[in-house]
Amino acid sequence: MLGVQDLYCAVLLVYNDINKTLPGPYHDPPTKEEVNELLKLSDKNEDGTLDRNEFNTFLETFTKTVSGRVSTNILLFSFVIPTIVTLSRPRAEQLPIVGPVVKQAPAPIYSALMTTLIVFIGGQFKRN
């Protein structure tokens, strides 16, 4: 029988491995409250713990949630952001104040700065 504390520790371990292995930003694990909600959805006999069958249900739901969160980040950092950075450079070079600096910047420096800026701005929207 597994309770919320056991499940939460396991979820943190999974996210620790994900963050060590996968590219892109840090993937925030679900909160203990979110894990508890998943437990409640899977706990058919409502005893506050999961037996083997309930745990299988929990794993199915958790896997769908994790794959959705992580695949979105991988897609963003592998394709979307690099495309935005590449397509934005010619326009940035035409800006009055920063254009000359952008023209002088090596492509890797420009890409790193723009990616950092996009991530920072995205993080600000995520918090609000």
From TrEMBL:
InterPro entries: EF-hand-dom_pair (IPR011992), EF_Hand_1_Ca_BS (IPR018247), EF_hand_dom (IPR002048)
GO molecular function (one): calcium ion binding
Segments passing through the bilayer: none
Residue ranges annotated for the EF-hand domain, each copy included: 30-65
Keyword annotations from UniProtKB, A to Z: Calcium
SUPFAM superfamilies noted in UniProt: EF-hand (SSF47473)
Record protein name field: EF-hand domain-containing protein
Taxonomic lineage: Eukaryota, Viridiplantae, Streptophyta, Embryophyta, Bryophyta
Gene: LOC112289453
